[in-house]
Every structure is written in structure tokens, then in C-alpha cells.
Amino acid sequence: MDIAGYLASIFIGVALGLIGGGGSILTVPVLVYLFSVDAVLATAYSLFIVGNTSVVGSISYFKKGLVDIKTAVVFGIPSIAAVFLTRAFIVPAIPNEIFSVGNFSVTKSILLMLLFAVLMILASSRMIKKCTDCNEDEKQIQQINYPLSFLQGTFVGLVTGLIGAGGGFLIIPALVNLLKLPMKTAIGTSLLIISINSLTGFLFSLHHTIIDWKFLLVISSIAIIGILIGSFISTKIDGKKLKPAFGWFVLVMGIYIIIKETILK
């Protein structure tokens, strides 16, 4: 299964490079099902992989001036605080066994995977649905809604800290709809926010997590190669055309995880 895992790791990066987000949502399932990593540990590993891959992905956006630092700060501060509280207190506080129904026990790992599956299904609907509110006008004046930005940033930080997902599918709509950023700038800014949130969350996980650094660095390097490949391909192929197909794939994966963690357990 290791070979399949390595190929899937490349695919994670390729998807990020092609469609600007969504690929990182496959990181935890790849780690759990293809590399047999414990789900709780996989969320920590995912934070490192997603964070570093997003840093690489954001470089081209920086060079093009498509990263809004002010917005990243406004949105990022409550996100980082939420990531810290989640990784430092909420995740360690979740009991190993939540509850039992007959012979079926809902453990901490199963709970995290089910939450992840729900997130995948929500993310897939955003990818499949044609974007009707995407603002491509680079000259539109930005109007920051601070209360909504704070709430959205906090929620994204909670999601990132809890299940190790970057949350790009949540961040980009918020930046476009709440902060009125152009779509390309929203993607670049989102990658910066994701990288900061994810790497911060990983650092907050170190004190109660045993890390296999060799394995983690290999997978991260493969994902980074993938995002470079995806970024190159995106200059030849319109990522928007591939996004719905990838969304359907994520939807099927989310449903599969729910079935595997409940009926097939």
C-alpha cells in the first residue's frame, strides 16, 4: 500500500496546484488508509504536510502580488488562536472511547474520521457547485466585515486544529463574500492563512505527539513536488474545468469513509 500512498501524496499536491485548494483534504485519508497511521496522529502529520505544501504554493501568488497581507492578519489572528486552543486542549481532552452502542464503540479515531468525512462532503459540494459569486474584478474596493471575519476565522481555526485540514474551501468563500477579495487574490491569501494555521497547529501538537520525521519529510517532499507539477499543468489546463470532477471524487471518498468507519468496522 506504500506505493499507492506515495502516488496519492503526489496527487494531493497536483490537486492543490491545479484548483487552488481541496487537495489537502485527502491527506488524512491517505495517511490513515494507505499508510496505516493512527487517525489522531494523522491529523498532526496532515498539518505539517498541508502547511509546507501551502507555503510552496503561495510563493507564485506572492510574486504576482496576489496575497493580501492585511486580510491574512485580520482573518488569521482568530484562526491561530482557535488552532492553539483546539490542539492544546480540545484534542487531548477527547476520551479514547466516546460511547458504545451494542458491540460498536465510537472511539476518538472513529470520531475524527467521521468528522473528516462530513467535511469532505461539504467541501465536495462547494467544488461541484458552479461558482456564481466569484469576484474576478481585481479593482473592487475591499470592505472588511470584522465581526464576521472574526467568527469565520475562529471556525476555520477550529476545523484546522481538530482534523488537520487546511480549510481552503471555507476560507476562499469567506474572503470573496465577506471581505470582497478578487478570486485570485483570495486563493493566494488563503494559501498563506492555511500555511500559518497548519504549521502553528503542528507546533502545538509536538509536546504530546511522537513524530516519525523521516516518513513525514518524505511525504511532504512528494506532496510539494506534486504542487509544482500541478502549478505547471494549470498553465496548460483550466483548473476550473477539473474542479467539479475532483469534487465528485472527494464526495465518494467522504461517503466511503462513513461506511468504512461504521458499517464495515
Looking at the chains present, what oligomeric state does this protein adopt?
A: single chain
Total strands: the figure is 2
Taking pLDDT < 50 over at least 5 consecutive residues as the criterion, the unreliable ranges are none
Number of domains: 1
- Bin the helical content: over 70%
Structural class of the helices, strands and pairings? mainly alpha
| Element pattern in H and E | HHHHEEHHHHHH
Please give a structural write-up.
By secondary structure, the chain is mainly α. It has one domain. Helix content is about 70%, strand content about 5%. It has a two-stranded antiparallel sheet. β1 and β2 form a beta hairpin. α3 packs across α9 and α5 runs antiparallel to α10. It is globular. The model has no long low-confidence stretch (mean pLDDT about 80).
Features:
single chain; 265 residues; mainly alpha; two-stranded antiparallel sheet
Briefly summarize what is shown.
The chain is mainly alpha-helical. It has one domain.
List the helices and strands and how they pair.
Layout: H1 2-19, H2 27-34, H3 39-63, H4 69-93, E1 97-101, E2 104-107, H5 108-128, H6 146-163, H7 168-177, H8 183-205, H9 213-233, H10 239-261
Antiparallel strand pairs: 1-2
